[in-house]
Amino acid sequence: MDSIVNIDDFGAIGNGVHDDSEAINKAIQSLAKQKGGVLYIPAKTYAISKELYINVPGMYIRGASPYFSVLKILDDFSGRAAVVFEPDSFQLSKGVGVDAGLTIDCNNKMAHGLLGIRLYDQISLRNVEIKNVHSEYSGFRFAQDKEGYNVIGQSLLLENCYAERATNIAVTPMYYFDRYQEVNLIGCKSFSSVPNSDTPQGDAFYLKDCKGISFTGCSAAFSQNAITLEA
Q: What is the share, in percent, of the chain residues with pLDDT greater than 90?
């Protein structure tokens, strides 16, 4: 079996108009059957109407280009986020992420860019750009599947990631972490409102019941608050 799967081989078109979500999810399921691997996204724009759902360990998304490998949310999109990492249990959430760059165009639709549920160890997101994020949604959102102080996620690395709002209205934080620890953000940038907004709103980075979070060379622009803590 090939550990690197090209989504075009499963019928994805990549013209920015045709709905490629079914083809891409077929490619994901192919990797799931062989217990992980790399989902390769060529340098084209792939339109999606459904979330891309990854629920097994050891699976990474690899774009041919951080800027030209694009997932674009369609007007009739149905789902929580363009990309969802949600393992069946926290023991199975290791070793997932984006390892060579990807752009997600949220198209100002009601969905997060990337959603991680109770991710746990060896999680890496590199060179991920999320743009045109809706005012009520996050570019990057890391949450839990249930309540409880002992329910946590851990060991996340975000490097050279970027998230930008579609308008100057911001209700939801751009980067949101709920009960995560051992998180490193390196060179990450957040525009909570549209660039050059005269009335910036929103939180760039929001940390709820988190610990062991480090920021290195990160920035928050066009935001009301750079970092907000909730305990």
A: 86
